[in-house]
Amino acid sequence: MRLRPYQLKAIESIRNAIRDKKNKILLHSATGSGKTQIAKSIIQNAVDKGSKVLFITKGRLVVSNGANAIPNSSIIMNGHKKDFDINNPIQIASIDTVVSRRDSLIFLKDFNIIIYDEAHFCTSKSYQTFMDWVGVDNKIHIGLTATPYKVGKKYHTFWNAYVSPVGIKQLLEDGYLNKYTLYVPNDIDTSGVEMTADDFNIKQLAKAVNKQTITGNVVNTYKKIAKGKVGVYFAVNIQHAQNLSEQFESEGIMSSCITGNTSSKQREKYIKELKESFLLGKPYVLVSVGVLTVGVDIPEIEVCGIVRPTHSEILHIQIIGRALRITPGKDENVIIIDHAGNCLKHGLPCIKREPDLNPKKVKAVTDIAIKSCSKCFIVYEPKLKACPNCGFQELIKKRDSTINHQDGELVQYSEEQNKLLAVVDYNKAVNYFEINLRGRISQAKYMNDLYKRLYKKYNDAMLELAPNSFKEYIRKEKIINSIKEY
Question: Does 198 score more than 90 pLDDT?
Answer without folding.
Answer: no
